[in-house]
Amino acid sequence: MNLKRGSNVVHVQDGNTATVDTNIAEKDGSFAHMKGTIKIQ
């Protein structure tokens, strides 16, 4: 994915469940959702 100016990005980290959610909406109407886990030390 090649982010361009005008993209909307929402990135949420939940420390209680060690999860990360990222949503990206592009100007051309395309949309991406990514989900993963994080390691908290």
UniProtKB/TrEMBL annotation:
Pfam families: MoaF_like. InterPro entries: MoaF-like. It comes from the Bacteria. Residues 4-39 form the MoaF-like domain. This is MoaF-like domain-containing protein. It comes from Bartonella callosciuri.
